[in-house]
Amino acid sequence: MERSIKTGDHVIVADEYGVKHDGLVTESWGSVATKDGEPGPCVNVLFVTAAQDKRDQYGSQIERLSSCSHKLSTPAPGRFWHWPDETF
User: What angle do CA 28, 29, 31 make, to 5 degrees?
Assistant: First the structure.
């Protein structure tokens, strides 16, 4: 099955500590269509942080990652994304 990603899509994103969050794609880079089991493109993504020290009177702050690689493209333990139905 071929997948494509676009602005506004829901993804799972791991922050710099490897903590996973629901994310929202704000931009995608490179080839946006891939097959199952292949890495997706780099994306810009935002998510609501879980860090307790990043709360203010408005609630939890929003974090952004730019040029975030798909999990299959990086051995890093964080700063990656994947589709919600993928497990790692």
Answer: 105
Confidence of residue 26 (pLDDT cuts 50, 70, 90): very high
Query: Dihedral (C-alpha) 75, 78, 82, 84: value to the nearest 10 degrees?
Result: 140
**Per-domain boundaries in the chain:** 2-82
- The residue type found at 71 is K
Q: Smallest Cα–Cα separation from 12: which of 1, 23, 25?
A: 23
> Which tens digits make up the pLDDT trace of 66-76?
999 999 999 99
Give the Cα separation of 9 and 51 in Å (integer): 23
pLDDT above 90 covers what percent of the chain?
A: 77
Longest pairwise C-alpha distance within the chain: 44
The phi and psi torsions of 51 (rounded to 5 degrees) equal: -65, 125
In terms of pLDDT, which residue wins out, 4 or 30?
4
